[in-house]
Amino acid sequence: MPLPQLNVYRHDRRKRALITLAGEIDLDTVPLVRESLDKCLRDGIRTIDIDLTAVTFCDCSGLNAFLHASHQTMAAGGALQLHNPPPLVARLVDLTDTGFLFLAPSAPTLPRQPAPIASALAGGVL
């Protein structure tokens, strides 16, 4: 069985980098994500934008890598933002309530669904 593939592209402009991720982010590929984000900081980059448009899968290891990189970037006086998260990433960020840490302002947030028990208590039918 072939390993999941992840491609990482980096474009720098002064102290800002655009990282474009394409493919699956999981335990097998997250070291590549971590290394590319760590390298940005080592290279003096203080603003990191991550384009997730072409991400087809992301598990909690990917989210953890983004959280770690966000913390490291803020500690260095910079900022990290996720752009264009696909629905599966937006859902992961929404479930963990971590979007405020690194979602770009234009990123859509998922509407919160009322819990079924709340509907039943309000006189609704389950």
What is the mean pLDDT?
A: 85
Shape descriptor reads globular
N- and C-termini, Cα separation: 43 Å
Over the alpha carbons, how many angstroms does the gyration radius reach?
Answer: 17 Å
Number of helices: 5
Largest sheet report: 4 strands, mixed
Classify the helix fraction into a percent range: 25-40%
Strand content: 25-35%
Computed structural class: alpha/beta
Quick description:
The protein is built from 5 helices and 4 strands, in the order E-E-H-E-H-E-H-H-H. The protein has helices spanning 30-42, 60-75, 87-96, 99-102, 116-121, and strands spanning 6-13, 16-25, 47-58, 79-83.
Please name the defining characteristics of this protein:
single chain, 126 residues, alpha/beta, Transcription Regulator spoIIAA, 5 helices, globular, disordered C terminus
Structure overview:
With 126 residues, the chain is an alpha/beta fold. The chain has one domain: STAS domain (Transcription Regulator spoIIAA, 2-Layer Sandwich). Helix content is 39%, strand content 28%. Strands 1-2-3-4 form a four-stranded mixed beta sheet. It starts with 5 loop residues before the first strand and ends in a 5-residue tail after the last helix. The relative contact order is 0.14.
Set out the fold topology.
Elements: E1 6-13, E2 16-25, H1 30-42, E3 47-58, H2 60-75, E4 79-83, H3 87-96, H4 99-102, H5 116-121
Parallel strand pairs: 2-3, 3-4
Antiparallel strand pairs: 1-2
Helix pairs in contact: 1-2
